[in-house]
Amino acid sequence: MLTAQANVRRSDITILSGAYFTFFAIVGLMVPYLSVYLDRLGYDSQSIGELLAMVATMRIIGPSLWSAIADKTGRHILVARIGGLCALLSLVSLFWLESRLGRLIALAAFNLFWTAVLPQVEVITLRKLAVIPGMYGKVRSAGSLGFIVISTLAGVAIADYGADAFVAIGVILAVLLLANLCLVAQPKIPQQQIQQEAQSHAPFWSLALIGLVTCSFLIQTSHGAYYSFFILYMVDLGYSEFAAGWLVALGVLAEIVLFWRIGSLFSRFRLMTLFQAALVLTCLRWLLMSGWADIWPVLTLSLLLHAASFGIIHACSMRWLHHHIASAHHSKAQALYSGTGFGAGSVAGPAVVAPLWQQGAGAMESYLVCAGIAALAIVVFQLTIKSSAMNDSPPE
Hints:
By secondary structure, the chain is an all-alpha fold. It folds into 2 domains: 2-188, Growth Hormone, Chain: A, CATH 1.20.1250; 198-383, Growth Hormone, Chain: A. The protein is built from 17 helices and no strands. The protein has helices at 2-6, 10-40, 45-73, 76-93, 100-114, 117-129, 135-161, 163-183, 191-200, 207-222, 224-236, 241-268, 271-291, 296-304, 306-324, 330-357, 363-383. Helix 11 (224-236) packs across helix 12 (241-268) and helix 11 (224-236) runs antiparallel to helix 17. The longest helix is centred in the N-terminal third of the chain and has 31 residues, at 10-40. It is a multi-pass membrane protein. InterPro entries: HcaT-like, MFS_assoc_dom, MFS_trans_sf. It is found in: Cell inner membrane. It comes from Neiella litorisoli.
């Protein structure tokens, strides 16, 4: 173990942290401000909605497309670099494109190529850092930090300098992301592990994997009211938009602290215990939001539970995928997890709660539905992942 840890260079940790920071900084730019960018260019609500739907579609189909190539070739970092380069070029083209069709194609291309990056970075990070308990969480926390920094600062830049600031920030971040990807080395799989997997003919699909992906989809869907209407909900409760933004930041800060401490949690509790507790806390979080968000201690607790509803669930999912899926299928598994959860789930969530919201009048009903979806995830977990015959402890 000490020898394996020695083979992980400090520069590897720095580079991978930089890749996560810049990737999720782009998320922090795109998720809140893409609609603002399109509005500044004169797009109407219907056009913006159609384009955002296209973006969501790319997030669903893109990861599996690229990861199939990565698993077949074994060149995960090369696939990530190609995706990062093409995503950068797509963003740069927005400086010159003026037609709506041209911008649509550029943004579609950006999202298609950009989805090639994260599954490969996850695979590489888990392979490089698996020998150091808790290190994955610390490196992954850089992504949360990147999201919060850019989502906080980009709004000011766009307000002062207009739509071009959105593209400029995106290009700068994409350049930094590509630079980090160019410094990452493809990790080697131990020959003994390759031989063991070849002899076992390890299958990809299992009841537990289906359950994990389904739970990911349901939990992401349960965040629909929070991701879509939280700011508006807080304004309705009397908070300013500035204060509401800092309340969102509180949840992300809790997530960062969780990622730094996840190693100690894994050493004290079984993986299935942590996973199940996080699902229950997610359900509790939305119940608290449904009826007691006007009580600030309850609201604060709900926001701190983002550490469970996203942080613990994501960390447990990554650990499970790394230890229970054959190395030859790692990228495919990451793509399935990402495309189904963060892709399809991020589409389904707003679609479920939007008809219920009714300008805030249906906030309670919306969050109760989200709590019900999280409760369904608990049931799926019990019937699939927890009841599977697979050992939840990582192999020695």
